[in-house]
Design brief:
The chain has 126 residues and is mainly α. It has one domain. It has helices spanning 6-9, 26-44, 65-124. Helix 2 packs across helix 3. The termini are far apart.
């Protein structure tokens, strides 16, 4: 299960559910977020009374490479550590999953034993 900070994408929190079920590499995620950031920025700018520069107010495929590189580096610096922490959390969760299942089974057995004991005590007092 891959965790992604929800506000980064306004998409499902589980990375495995994002982007048509494709699990992306760190670099691919940064590239996708960079493109989404550009497209969202261009879409929202007029709502805030801001007119973006003509050479960059274009579809992502037409954004000049120096601008793309700057945006990518910015997103990598801000979002990269978040993705790295999320990837570490994924690995830790994968290690814990077997123990979580075992703990749930033990809890269910304990609840059954507690219910059986409570019934016996009720029956003994009658």
């Amino acid at each position: 299960m891959g965790l992604v900070v929800d506000w980064l994408r306004h998409r499902p929190v589980n990375r495995h559910d994002c982007y048509a079920g494709v699990v992306m590499s760190h670099d691919e995620e940064i590239r996708k977020i960079t493109q989404e950031f550009h497209e969202t920025y261009e879409r929202l700018a007029p709502e805030f009374g801001y007119k973006t520069r003509g050479e960059t107010a274009v579809p992502w495929s037409e954004v000049p490479m120096p601008n793309r590189a700057l945006m990518y580096s910015t997103v990598e610096e801000v979002v990269g550590p978040i993705l790295t922490r999320a990837e570490q959390a994924e690995r830790e969760l994968a290690l814990l999953k077997p123990f979580i299942g075992e703990a749930r089974e033990n809890r269910a057995r304990a609840e059954q034993a507690e219910a059986a004991l409570a019934k016996r005590m009720t029956d003994d007092h009658q």
